[in-house]
Design goal:
mainly alpha, 10 helices
């Protein structure tokens, strides 16, 4: 089922957010930081697990180089951040009062769980290979994040799960149309490139690096392109 990963991820956010609503007050900063570091280590494990699945090192390197050139040329990271800032300005920064609005919780959570390499790579892998492991792992991570967010941002947090299903499900359905172009070798190299991006995300979460992982994301399509000629 192509949408299984996206549905699982969305449900985890809805359940995690609903559980977070039980908390009257936000979790302590100490617990929040500890949870985020633990989730970063989980992302590190996911990335390492698929890293060596590729069967052609040259294709993987060229995919990263070409994908990065495209991403940097388009400056995808800047565009994503500008989009997020516009949403925050429109719906969040103008909010008044002590209680967060539904829009604030919804948009803040959506930006966190939708804009990232695991969402992109996981959805593509679900659609292309039928393997939902990345989105299953992301579901656990997002579920815990939603508990933390909902304890402070309220009802809008679980509602973001609906957007995740639409966003990731749409990408998975699009990716499934690429299936005729895929060989076992292409899938293995695609998984390896995607795992590199997830490792970059994990290092960022651990504050080891400050990589613009979104700018590298076009690399995920490059093994498919190379597969047409090799």
């Amino acid at each position: 089922m192509i949408l299984l990963g996206a549905l699982t991820n969305g449900l985890a956010i809805i359940l995690g957010g609903s559980f977070g609503l039980i908390f009257k007050r936000g979790l302590s900063e100490k617990i929040t930081n500890a949870l985020m570091n633990a989730l970063a280590l989980c992302a590190l494990y996911v990335g390492m697990e698929g890293l060596l699945s590729g069967d052609n090192m040259l294709i993987i390197i060229l995919s990263m180089v070409l994908g990065t050139l495209i991403g940097e040329g388009l400056d995808l990271d800047l565009k994503v951040n500008q989009f997020g800032n516009k949403l925050e300005t429109r719906f969040i920064q103008n909010e008044k009062g002590d209680s967060p609005s539904i829009a604030q919780g919804f948009i803040s959570t959506s930006l966190i769980v939708c804009i990232g390499s695991m969402a992109i790579v996981g959805a593509l892998q679900s659609g292309i290979t039928g393997n939902h492991d990345i989105l299953f792992a992301k579901a656990i991570i997002d579920g815990i994040i939603s508990i933390v967010l909902a304890s402070t941002l309220g009802l809008g947090v679980p509602l973001a799960g609906i957007l995740v299903v639409v966003y990731e499900g749409g990408m998975a359905l699009f990716a499934s149309s690429l299936t005729p172009l895929l060989t076992e070798s292409v899938i293995q190299n695609l998984t390896s490139v995607g795992s590199l991006l997830i490792l970059g995300l994990a290092f960022n979460l651990l504050k080891i690096t400050d990589l613009k992982v979104i700018n590298y994301s076009p690399a995920i399509f490059m093994p498919i392109l190379f597969g047409l000629f090799i």
